Amino acid sequence: MGKLYDNWEKHAEAERYYLEVIDGRPDHTSAYIYLGAMFAKLGRLTEAEELHRRATACSEGEIAEAYLNLALVQRARGDYVGALMNLRKAVELDPEYSDAKDALTDIQTVLFEFPQVKP
User: Fold this and answer.
1) Dihedrals phi, psi of 74, to nearest 5 degrees
2) Which of 13, 39, 69, 87 pairs with 104 at a CA distance of 20 to 30 A?
3) Residue 112's CB: how many other CB atoms inside 10 A?
């Protein structure tokens, strides 16, 4: 229901449903990830980061996806080192996770290989 309301841009209702799922299954990543993604889309990056961080501590669900989403929010907030560390963790957990591998390659390029521009 949360995703449905999110798609309808009824974010308060979506948040309520996601929080109900979190209350019922606090150790599963899904609702944290979906609510965090919705908050990120709405520009609520601090809250999104906290939700994705909580998802990384779960024992059930897509843990690698939680690390990817945490890293993407960190990157958006300018925390490139944090993003790098969490992308590495996502790829460590799932070496075939192409979205995480692509994001890791991008941030490594920016941090370590991007040509210096002279003024």
Assistant:
1) -60, -40
2) 39
3) 8
Instruction: Give CA–CA dist 93/41, Å, rounded.
Output: 25
pLDDT value at 114 more than 80: no
* Residues making up the chain, counted from first to last: 119
Q: Is the pLDDT of residue 15 over 70?
A: yes
Question: Helix, strand, coil proportions of the chain in percent (round to 5)?
Answer: 75, 0, 25
Map tokens 């999110």 to a residue.
6
- Whether the CB-CB separation of 66 and 56 falls below 8 Å is answered with yes
State CA 59 to chain mean position distance: 16
- Residue 50 in this model has a pLDDT that exceeds 90: yes
Strands (DSSP E) contained in the chain are none
Distance between CA 96 and CA 39 in Å, rounded? 27
**Nearest Cα to 68, choosing from 42, 44, 40?**
40
Give the pLDDT confidence of 52-98 residue by residue, as tens digits. Answer: 999 999 999 999 999 999 999 999 999 999 999 999 999 999 999 99
Local structure of residue 59 (DSSP, 8 states): S
